[in-house]
Design brief:
Number of strands: 3
Low-confidence stretches: none
Order of helices and strands: HEEHE
Structural class: alpha+beta
Helix content: 55-70%
Largest sheet: 3 strands, mixed
């Protein structure tokens, strides 16, 4: 009797083990697939971020060069930063004309999406 019970229980246990193992294998496969997609997405984000940083650096360099070669502005200290094609101008200039000119130079640079002109105007002190 014990042998018959054992013979009927063992196949059932083996079947449960095989079915459970198949489910675990599918779950592991799905997890690996998901991890692979996440890793690919992360690599894609890094590539896009790097490309944006390179583009921003190139824009900053172009604008700084243009400002430094401009006969009216080249003696001012204007700090230029670029993030995602948006240029931020900071520093101090002696007149609103120079502030506007610096903004125009930045806006006219190819690839610039927007300009945040945070330049401050200072009054020159007479000797």
């Amino acid at each position: 009797m014990k042998v018959r019970i054992l013979m009927s229980v063992v196949p059932t246990m083996l079947l449960a083990f095989v079915l459970n193992g198949t489910a675990l294998a599918q779950s592991a496969s799905q997890s690996m697939d998901s991890a692979g997609r996440s890793a690919a997405g992360a690599v894609n984000d890094v590539v896009k971020g790097t490309a944006t940083a390179i583009s921003d650096t190139a824009l900053t360099t172009k604008i700084k060069t243009a400002l430094n070669t401009d006969s009216e502005i080249h003696h001012t200290r204007i700090h230029v930063t670029t993030r995602g094609g948006v240029v931020i101008l900071r520093g101090r200039v002696p007149s609103s004309v120079m502030k506007d000119r610096a903004e125009k130079i930045a806006r006219d640079t190819e690839g610039v999406k927007d300009v945040k002109n945070q330049l401050e105007i200072y009054k020159r002190v007479s000797d």
